[in-house]
Amino acid sequence: MLDYPTLKIIWWLLIGVLLVGFAIMDGHDMGVGTLLPFVGKSDIERRAVINTVGPHWDGNQVWFITGGGAIFAAWPIVYATAFSGFYWAMLAVLWALFFRPVGFDYRSKVQDARWRSTWDWGLFVGGAVPPLIFGVAFGNLLQGVPFRFDDYMVSTYTGTFWQLLNPFALLAGVVSSAMITMHGGVYLAHRTEGAIQRRAIRGGLVAAAVMVVAFLAAGLWLRVGGIEGYVISSRIDPASLSDPLAKTVVRDAGAWWANYSRQPLLWSLPMLGVGGALLAMGLLSAARTGWAFVASSLAIVGVIGTAGAAMFPFVMPSSSMPNASLTVWDSVSSHLTLGLMFWATLIFMPLIVFYTSWAYRVMRGKVTVEQIQANEHNAY
């Protein structure tokens, strides 16, 4: 079996892969939902939009469920503390996600314009709200979350829900929302044609431009805006058992840039985030939608990777009690648990990727208004 420190690093990387997979696979579904009321000007056009993601959206939820399960199993203290501090935010995500299954299933059951319009906006909420809240959560992680542990390792959130909605966190939410909307616009442009495709391209271009500007603004804010990062100032044993309080943490204005100074190659991540979005814009304008989807996916890798590389080894810093900050080294499950999960992942992850690839290959091609009209009872 792999040694304990190596498994800790591997699971940090694997959870990052799951987050990226969720953003790419379920993200384009959410992006399509966000654009739905704006790119579909009639009922039949909106049905065409919905049918681009209708056969796949529930399968893509596997990434979301697997990511949550992996955090629960690999980082149980992080899972418990996050759901305590972000309780209402997580509930808002779940409430928004409720609109998706019922929206896809019920929207076309009744021939009534108001009924269908209501579910269209429900699908918009289900697509727009989760990325926004996830971005706000990342913005708060970069600033530190107000929580502390008592002598029995029971965590207490010392802030309020409204503290989460601070200006920097909202800017991070804009980055996330625009990124997912861009990705959905690119996917929709690839799967449609005619007027719907033209509107999707415009939506994707606007979202990509907003993402680039907001991403650069967030980086500048972190650099010169007075947001302090976190540094472990004491010795830490990577092979030790989980004990978040067995270290000393200090705050420093340049801490989130330290990893980039030590490893200049990491600068490729923010460059990938910006460059991937700009490349997606150019490819979208040229109607090279397949390659634009690849570029958009790379932009997602760059944006999420930028935050992860900046924070490493921190996972959930504490602004109330810095020494209680949760890191890759001291908030994980046992050696045996991480080892068993690692081998299970090696078996099942390729199966998920293979099945997903097969499903998209089988149901590839354009979705047109004419197809929906010809298959009235088989389409969403």
Description:
Helix content is about 70%, strand content about 5%. The protein is mainly alpha-helical. It has one domain (about 5-375). The chain has a two-stranded antiparallel sheet. Strands 3-4 form a two-stranded antiparallel ribbon. A hairpin with a 5-residue loop joins strand 1 and strand 2. Helix 8 (about 195-225) runs antiparallel to helix 10 (about 270-285). The model has no long low-confidence stretch (mean pLDDT about 90).
Number of domains: 1
Question: What best-fitting shape do the alpha-carbon axes yield?
Answer: globular
Query: What would the average pLDDT be, to the nearest integer?
Result: 91
Largest sheet: 2 strands, antiparallel
What's the gyration radius in Å?
Answer: 21 Å
Please report the number of helical segments: 13
Task: Write down how many β-strands occur, each being a DSSP E stretch of 2 or more residues.
Answer: 6
User: What's the N-to-C terminus distance?
Assistant: 48 Å
Give the helix level as a range of percent: 55-70%
Q: Which structural class do the helices and strands define?
A: mainly alpha
Q: How large is the share of residues in beta strands?
A: 5-15%
